[in-house]
Amino acid sequence: MTTSSAPGKRASQRRIAFATIIGTTIEWYDFFIYATSAGLVFAQLFFEPAGKEIALLLSFATVGISFLFRPLGAFLAGHFGDVIGRRAMLVVTLVLMGVATTLIGTLPTYSQIGITAPVLLLLLRILQGLSAGGEWGGAVLMAVEHAPADRRGRAGSWPQLGVPLGFLLASGMTALMTGVISPGEAYLQWGWRVPFLVSIVLIVVGFVIRRSVEESPVFAEIAERGKQAGLPIVTLFRRHWHLVLLAALVFVGNGTLGYMTTGGFLNSYAISVGHLETTSVLLAAVFAAVVWFFSTLLAGYLADAIGRRSTFLIGFGLQAVIVFPVFWLVDAGGLPGLYVALLLISTGLGLTYGPLAAWYAEIFPASIRFSGVSITYAIGAVLGGAFAPMIAQMLLGATGTTAAVSAYLLLATLLGAGATLCLRDRRGIALGPDNEDEQAVGATVFASAAPAGEVAGQFAGTR
């Protein structure tokens, strides 16, 4: 039995879970604190000369532009993650994200240095995008490749939990600054900087924790045998381009709806159109993050119990049902309506996010797995989440109604569900380098799969 298929020690599993959750939480706190601020203050501080409406569009555009650089981050981290290891890239991406985030907190505004201010803001956001593009793949592989086959779904949900936790911290910190420490003008003058500057402390904590975990057993086995792929990205696109596209579309179905909340659009809509108080909206976002956390955790367990594919389809079904009512709830129900809308959104998001890590890891061969999961996730983020807040704002401005926004979200959900139906559930497949031939075939319904008995035997042998 290979190292990759043997159950890890419980203490090691807990340490890996803690390291992946903490590290990913810090990474995504940094990423989301920007998106939250983009919907609240960046339009005024960095783009005000463009006029109110255009300034808000430009602010949301900087959120999206960073996504265009996530594939580059994924390419770089994927290549080196498959060549030199998962753990090293986790540390590099964490430090890069922290430095960029901290520097944003020190930036002068447009009124102080003119056009240089938004240019510097955009450059630092691009660095955040590069880091986010590379971080996710390393975190999920550290979790999934250490896990026994029958617990990969829940293990894969550990780094996924860092995303709602990062959103919770970002929303909570901003709510603290707007509601308690620096309300009103003080928030615009200096309070918005504090959540960015806090990142330097979090990065030190995350660095120490991530340095303490062992390398993934799958990569350790690959390195020991000298089987690292020389050009993993070339191999990925030459042999598995169709798989990258389908798996990316699965994430489009999640990310487009997700960035209505994490990308700041729903917050901005509730404040500017619904006339809700800023701190109250941010506290509602904290509530959404808590729901998202628990639904993601539940989805990890469901993925092991009923399968990755089935869990996704349940989540996409819920998303399809709610995309129109959520805006009606905000319009008619005020703050209570916003809470109900966020409850529905966050439940659907968790069900279509929790199983993603395990499923992605199981559909790519071991020697190109880091490249596969990172690049697929980054492409899905570009197609789905990148410009979702900006597109939603444009649709709202052009039509004067949220019906067009809801139709856009429904289309993305249906794309995700359709791609899900095109992929096979591969839970139980062995992840180690001895099984590359089996891993390389049968991931889609259009190709012949490995014999069912062979996969079932591998699964039974890991219990």
TrEMBL record:
<dbReference type="Pfam" id="PF07690">
    <property type="entry name" value="MFS_1"/>
</dbReference>
<keyword id="KW-0813">Transport</keyword>
<keyword id="KW-1003">Cell membrane</keyword>
<feature type="transmembrane region" description="Helical">
    <location>
        <begin position="54"/>
        <end position="76"/>
    </location>
</feature>
<protein>
    <submittedName>
        <fullName>MFS transporter</fullName>
    </submittedName>
</protein>
<dbReference type="InterPro" id="IPR011701">
    <property type="entry name" value="MFS"/>
</dbReference>
<dbReference type="InterPro" id="IPR005829">
    <property type="entry name" value="Sugar_transporter_CS"/>
</dbReference>
<dbReference type="InterPro" id="IPR020846">
    <property type="entry name" value="MFS_dom"/>
</dbReference>
<feature type="transmembrane region" description="Helical">
    <location>
        <begin position="241"/>
        <end position="261"/>
    </location>
</feature>
<feature type="transmembrane region" description="Helical">
    <location>
        <begin position="16"/>
        <end position="42"/>
    </location>
</feature>
<feature type="transmembrane region" description="Helical">
    <location>
        <begin position="310"/>
        <end position="330"/>
    </location>
</feature>
<dbReference type="InterPro" id="IPR036259">
    <property type="entry name" value="MFS_trans_sf"/>
</dbReference>
<keyword id="KW-0472">Membrane</keyword>
<keyword id="KW-0812">Transmembrane</keyword>
<keyword id="KW-1133">Transmembrane helix</keyword>
<feature type="transmembrane region" description="Helical">
    <location>
        <begin position="165"/>
        <end position="184"/>
    </location>
</feature>
<feature type="transmembrane region" description="Helical">
    <location>
        <begin position="336"/>
        <end position="361"/>
    </location>
</feature>
<feature type="transmembrane region" description="Helical">
    <location>
        <begin position="119"/>
        <end position="144"/>
    </location>
</feature>
<feature type="transmembrane region" description="Helical">
    <location>
        <begin position="373"/>
        <end position="396"/>
    </location>
</feature>
<feature type="transmembrane region" description="Helical">
    <location>
        <begin position="402"/>
        <end position="423"/>
    </location>
</feature>
<feature type="domain" description="Major facilitator superfamily (MFS) profile">
    <location>
        <begin position="16"/>
        <end position="428"/>
    </location>
</feature>
<feature type="transmembrane region" description="Helical">
    <location>
        <begin position="190"/>
        <end position="209"/>
    </location>
</feature>
<feature type="transmembrane region" description="Helical">
    <location>
        <begin position="88"/>
        <end position="107"/>
    </location>
</feature>
<feature type="transmembrane region" description="Helical">
    <location>
        <begin position="281"/>
        <end position="303"/>
    </location>
</feature>
